[in-house]
From TrEMBL:
GO cellular component, as recorded: cytoplasm
Keyword terms, alphabetized: ATP-binding, Kinase, Nucleotide-binding, Transferase
Gene3D superfamilies: P-loop containing nucleotide triphosphate hydrolases
EC number: 2.7.1.12
Name of the protein described by the UniProt record: gluconokinase
GO MF assignments: ATP binding; gluconokinase activity
InterPro entries noted in UniProt: P-loop_NTPase (IPR027417), Therm_gnt_kin (IPR006001)
Catalysed transformations (reactions): D-gluconate + ATP = 6-phospho-D-gluconate + ADP + H(+)
Pathway assigned to this chain's UniProt record: Carbohydrate acid metabolism; D-gluconate degradation
Species whose genome carries this gene: Machaerirhynchus nigripectus
Amino acid sequence: DRIPWLCALHDILRREDASRQDAILACSALKKIYRRVLISGAPAIESNQPEQPGENPALKILFVHLDGPMDIIASRLKKRRGHFMPPELLKSQFDTLEPPSAPENFITVSLEKSLPEIVLEIESAILQG
């Protein structure tokens, strides 16, 4: 049920890329196939591989893996008001998670850092290309 939504997000990212706009997208792409769909769209599902260079080359996306212990994340979730993600689903999210790995283009940022440190680390990675 996530694939059409991820394909729609890919299309948005493709449009931004075509108009030479930088974009930041926040979503929980917990599985490797979800990240492939964001990069390559529907062909990633059909071939289970990223698109090859050609008419619609794969998008260059830097994935930011926000990593931290379950207790810290649970504590933050409990403080949220009006958010759709109930803390009771957190364990299932951890169970589903396939952390990014090579050759994916990603950085891992610890949630144990302060928010300004997290933002600075992400900005630095973006600026380094």
